[in-house]
Design a protein that fits this description.
Blueprint: H1 6-13, E1 18-25, E2 30-37, E3 42-46, H2 53-62, E4 66-71, H3 83-90, E5 93-97, E6 107-109, E7 114-117, E8 120-126, E9 135-139, E10 144-148, E11 151-152, E12 155-156, H4 166-177, E13 185-188, E14 198-199, H5 200-206, H6 216-223, H7 234-241, E15 262-263, E16 269-271, H8 273-278, E17 284-287, H9 291-295, E18 305-306, H10 309-315, E19 325-328, H11 338-348, E20 354-357, H12 360-366
Parallel strand pairs: 3-4, 4-5, 5-6, 10-13, 16-20, 17-18, 17-19, 19-20
Antiparallel strand pairs: 1-2, 2-3, 7-8, 8-9, 9-10, 11-12, 13-14, 15-16
The structure holds fe (iii) ion.
Amino acid sequence: MASPTPFALAAAAGGPSLLVRQLFDPETSTFTYLLADVPSRQGVLIDSVYEQHPRDLSLIRELGIHLVASLDTHGHADHVTGSWRLHRATGCAIGLDAVAGAENVTLPLRHGDQVTFGGRHLEVRATPGHTDGCLCFVLDDHSVAFTGDALLVRSCGRCDFQQGDASTLYHSITEQILSLPDHCLLYPAHDYSGRAVSSVAEEKACNARLGGEADERDFVGYMENLHLPHPNRISIALPANLRSGRPADGGLEEADDWGPIERSYAGLPELTADWVADHRDELTLVDVRSESEVQGPDGRIPGSLLIPLPELERRAGEIPTDRPTVVLCHSGSRSGSRSALATQQLQKKGLTRVANLRGGIRAWKAQGLPLEYSSVTPSGP
Ligand code: FE
């Protein structure tokens, strides 16, 4: 597949110059946001989740976005941030409230700062109360705000640990968030009921804790009587987030440590032809084209194992398990190709070290890598 172009990003953005994507982690009900300035292709990610790193990185790469920073609205108690993994993969900055004092932060943020990505920027607004280091990120034109856990849809973050304070939160919400224009869209860090977005006008009128006629005394009384259970991941999440998500053991291990795997947004593991060629002796190459194609003018990669896709289910046991497997077909594209389907089939059969050859035989041939031919006269290389 060709590398993404600015046009691809513009198309994904649907025309406007700003791309906004809301992603969701069902395990922790966390929303992650990707913003990108289409003309410059620069972007930021807000509130990433450690376990969702492969998904987030794939989307950033597929759209050809240069990630400027991975930002967190606060030190989360319910999930570990993916910031350190993103920093390691892309070189992006790690942004968090300076108050948090976390390790590995390269962009300590304070109220009034701006985070610039291409021609756009986010305003940084301090919104303490849920924690003492909560930030809200407001888009430059005040059309969108990312409220973290300070203000949720019809709700708000708890105030009973991490230096939380209900009165402080009330002032943060009313003075820094609900003071934005009524039409400003509000995107929360969490929702447990599928509510993805709200607006200033909606929350002013309908927020269950401070909307309508509720005043500070009502809000504080509400918050002090919630009696919520402790988050079940807090003992893991807080110390990990004080390292910006870097694992305690240094975290240099990855599940895909046998090769420079890149996963498509759809989750397909892929390797490039030149890497596969360089490591040919350490891999099993499985060619899933038909017999006639393999005999034809495209040729075959020397030493590859031929198992046509319709026979793969039955013959998967022929594939050695002592080395990684790379699957190939003619096109090797990440959507709709036979090798993409074959890769998924082999994963279902329990192979963990398996990847698609990106671009298939076509990419192999285009790079002048060795092929062998059967009975017909080769057309190249
Ligand atoms: Fe939180």
